[in-house]
User: Which sequence fits this backbone?
């Protein structure tokens, strides 16, 4: 379940929590929390491509009260740091800041570092 996965994540049991989050996603593809936590777990494992994929899917989800997807996509790009990632992250952070999406205060702080 999602709560068991979050508990495993909080205990830094990233492989274990990913099994729970992936199970939740298979049963409920619209579960934004499962996508967010799976992406965060992948970030902790330094699997930036998988983290980006989860956050991209999260960012594209409609109808959420609050969506950190674009901000977290930017973070994963900054961590991955491949050619072009920094520029793409900057665009995403600017979008988050301009639209006052979830993470906009952090986005503004990161933008000042560019």
Assistant:
């Amino acid at each position: 379940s999602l709560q068991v996965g979050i508990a495993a994540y909080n205990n830094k049991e990233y492989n274990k929590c990913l099994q729970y989050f992936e199970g939740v996603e298979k049963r409920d593809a619209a579960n934004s929390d499962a996508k967010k936590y799976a992406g965060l777990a992948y970030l902790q494992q330094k699997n930036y491509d998988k983290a980006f994929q989860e956050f991209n899917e999260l960012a594209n989800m409609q109808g959420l009260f609050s969506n950190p997807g674009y901000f977290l996509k930017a973070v994963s790009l900054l961590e991955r740091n491949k050619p072009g990632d920094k520029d793409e992250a900057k665009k995403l952070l600017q979008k988050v800041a301009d639209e006052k999406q979830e993470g906009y205060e952090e986005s503004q702080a990161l933008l000042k570092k560019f």
